[in-house]
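Aim 2 progress update. The chain analyzed this quarter is reproduced below.
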Amino acid sequence: MANIDLILGFTSSAGEIIVLAFLLYRAIPRKLPWFFALILWGLISDISLYYALFKFNSDTYFRIFTVSTTVDSVLEFGVLVELIWSVLRPVRSSLPRASFGILLGAVALACLIIYPLAGQTIPANLTEQGKLGFHLEQTFAIMRVVVFLAMASFSQILSIGWRDRELQAATGLGFYSIVSLIVAVMHTHQTVGPEYHTLDQVASACYLGTLTYWVLCFATKDRQRKEISKQMRDTLVLIGGTVRTARMTARDDQENRKEGRKP
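Predicted structure tokens:
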């Protein structure tokens, strides 16, 4: 088992290095800097956690795991916002100035809604610090799946395809997240033992599959982004106008209340 873990660990780190190299070669960090930072942090985090696993006791390991997962969660939040905002690039000029702030709030609200649901997948054998880190990890795993499914479902309307970097990044994240969620749910019905750890190894092997997919994707040239469909453009402009009108109405009502007038 230990040999398999070492092979998976070293192979994953090597895969992350290769992905980072292709990201730099294709100048993708200029387009998706948060995604690049996430992969880079994944490499640093994996090496740190493997070192802690062999050098420290379980309490220290889970403290490091919690810190690592917290940083990872911040980066993943940035990646989710970045992917959605990047997809909307062709129509940004038609959206209200507050659109980015609204997007941040929407993603944050979705995370808060999903957070209690993610708690159902936490294995009972973890320490309190381990449960916190795992809870954050599963929350963003669900969010990654949601964003991937949304982008894939509306790909025709958004005029994005499998050769677009945004969908490539989301597909890899979504695939690994689905596997990790399945493993987490199965863990809640297991006791600690050889079969328990085998599922973790399956998840690690699937992460290698994600890294391989990204290498194949980023080894090819990026295609020029298609124009977003007129239907989607009109819809987003309509939403933007509705949001702008609502904000102006709320501001006028507030001014009226301050002046003692009825709205």
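The chain has two domains: 2-226, 229-263. The two ends are 70 Å apart (CA to CA). These observations will guide the mutagenesis experiments scheduled for the next reporting period.
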